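Input/output pair, single chain:
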Amino acid sequence: MPGRSRLANDAWEALLTAHAEIMRRLAAEDVWGEVSMREYDVLYTLSKCRGPIRLGELNRRVLLSQPALSRMVDRLVERGLVRREADSSDGRSVRLSLTEEGRAQQRQAGRPHALGVARRMKAALDDDEMVALRDLCRKLATEREPAGGVRA
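Output:
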């Protein structure tokens, strides 16, 4: 058995490789319609929010750099898919939400995308494995830095 640090890095590499390969396959599917897969990610993230959110909060939830996300939001606003509104708690900030057209585009791409995701996951994993993967990913996503720095 490799050392714990080596095992941790091997697991991380396997996770990133699986993510990259699955994303490549999903991006190649003919389901995106008038939005790109990255635009869909932004629309989907906004669709899951209970209300308008700040750009910084959106940035924490998607895999784009802040400058790239800002440019994408500008384009989505221009296309009428995302709405900007003044932040009532901070006059210097804006909040983002989906327009009705944005919600329609997200749903249009989302249904076939969800079917493609389910098809790929069910082909590779049984139900117990999917539960374990879900739980492990949630655990990784909520893991916090220990007090005093990074664990070795």
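Residues 4-28 form the longest helix (25 residues). The domain at 33-140 is CATH 1.10.10.10 (Arc Repressor Mutant, subunit A).
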